[in-house]
Amino acid sequence: xxxxxxxxxxxxxxxxxxxxENNNGLPDSTLPYGLCPRCNKQSSFEILGSxxxxxxxxxxxxxxxxxRKTHFDQVTSLECRNCNQPIIVIxxxxxxxxxxxxxxxxxxxxxxxxxxxxxxxxxxxNEIPSNISKILQEAKITYSAQxxxxxxxxxxxxxxxxxxxxxxxxxTLAKRIENLKVKGILDKNLGDWATExxxxxxxGAHFDPINEVAKEDANQIIMFIxxxxxxxxxxxxxxxxxxxx
Length: 245
Description:
Structural class: alpha+beta
CATH architecture of the largest domain: Up-down Bundle
Order of helices and strands: EEEEEEEEHHHHH
Largest sheet: 6 strands, antiparallel
Number of strands: 8
Low-confidence stretches: 1-6
Strand content: 25-35%
CATH topology of the largest domain: Four Helix Bundle (Hemerythrin (Met), subunit A)
Radius of gyration: 23 Å
CATH class of the largest domain: Mainly Alpha
């Protein structure tokens, strides 16, 4: 029997059938499903085509007798089946789980996404003050570019901008967060989150080979910032609009 998911990791469904493993990340040509960076929805994708991005030293003789350079980086266009818009992925070839550029032989060939266009999760509410939304957008762009330390620093900068906008423009960031908790602008849980953002942002700003900022850390603090913004700006604005109706 042919396995339809031979190039994908599978999980068992409720009837013991093979189903593709859920992809919580962004799609590529090996896993053409996941979160669409345009519509920010889980979707499957149609592969529209690929072009070489970096050639290696190999030559492949095509069936028509023409020589073709081989490559280990490629640009792939995928069409989201939810929003029906294309996205672009820069991908790297892996052989047996090892980058092909390291000249490894043996094992299955897969392509893993490195960069995506457009940048993911760029939708920002108009209820957020523009100076804060610009800094948050920079945190998201640097995260999409895999610059996790820079992203953590910009997330911390976003938090600083929020404290200033709420009237706390002097003293250490830790003190400003504490003052916002005393004023009731932040509850205890949000205050604790803000402290975590401050600490990870500090780690990103200073060189320390032991305490590097991991991808998961950078993503987590962006999520914290978005929840903080929802509580401080978006929810009050929605309540105000509701009361006017």
